[in-house]
Design a protein that fits this description.
Blueprint (H helix, E strand, L loop, with lengths): L13 H29 L25
Length: 67
């Protein structure tokens, strides 16, 4: 038997490629979660008009209004 002929093209290290793809995916998910936490903590919604008195039919009111 003879040795396999070299084709001149580099071999692909599939394990390294799979780890790189997994690392990029994990980095994207982590970055998205960090962005969501940043937006949730950094934003404060303005006050909106709502019912101030309980018992008005068809109207909702805040349980603990901030304004």
């Amino acid at each position: 038997m003879s040795a396999p002929a070299e084709t001149g093209s580099p071999r692909i290290n599939w394990r390294l490629l799979a780890l790189a793809i997994a690392a990029v995916g994990i980095a994207l998910v982590a970055g998205a979660n960090v962005h969501l936490v940043y937006v949730a903590v950094g934003s404060q919604p303005d006050c909106v008009p709502h019912a101030k008195v309980a018992g008005e039919p068809g109207a909702f009111r805040a349980a603990k209004p901030a304004c």
